[in-house]
Specification:
The structure is a single chain. This protein is mainly beta and 162 residues long. The chain has a domain of 108 residues: 3-layer Sandwich (Rieske Iron-sulfur Protein). It contains one helix and nine strands, in the order αβββββββββ. Strand 6 and strand 7 form a beta hairpin. The chain is globular and about 65 Å long. 29% of the residues are buried.
């Protein structure tokens, strides 16, 4: 089963296609849809189950931003996906506990707070996350990040001097 089939199945289960809710069950609200904004400022980014425990996914958010969404101990966290060092894709990095290492130069961040452990003066924006109607939704920024870029890194290359 491909991603399209899984998404269609998730949407059907939420909006009542194929075994939906009964007349006595709770009312199901209409889903705004993947990639759409809700009236209260959240963006629907993925169906629940798209991100596995201890992993991440990257999704488009407001103002042409990309966020990395992590699932840790059953709770979702979202941070800006651009590393403060050289804009590497944080959400594609190695995860250990609540820490993620940018795959470009291994700057490390706590995705629950946005704090950079490699460069303590640096941090990622943190966003509100909720689950509603079977979908992960990313909302407004809850903690600002720093705008600085650059800094030291060890890329494993030796500097040649004469």
């Amino acid at each position: 089963m491909g991603l399209r089939d899984r998404l269609k199945g998730a949407v059907k289960s939420v909006i009542g296609g194929g075994g939906g809710s009964s007349a006595t069950g709770p009312a199901v609200r209409a889903v705004t849809g993947l990639g759409k904004d809700t009236p209260d400022g959240y963006r629907v980014v993925a169906p629940v189950g798209a991100i596995k425990e201890g992993a991440a996914g990257t999704y488009g958010h407001n103002n042409n931003r990309v966020v990395a969404v992590f699932l840790k101990d059953g709770k979702y966290y979202a941070v800006d996906n651009e590393c403060r060092h050289e804009d590497g894709p944080v959400g594609e990095g190695a995860i250990k506990g609540c820490l993620v290492k940018c795959p470009y130069h291994e700057w490390e961040y706590d995705f629950t707070t946005g704090k950079c452990t490699t460069q303590p003066d640096s941090r990622l924006e943190v966003y509100a996350v909720r689950v509603q109607d079977g979908f992960i939704q990313v909302g407004p920024m809850t903690s600002p990040g720093t705008s600085m870029r650059g800094g030291e890194h060890n890329d494993g290359l030796k500097t040649i001097t004469r």
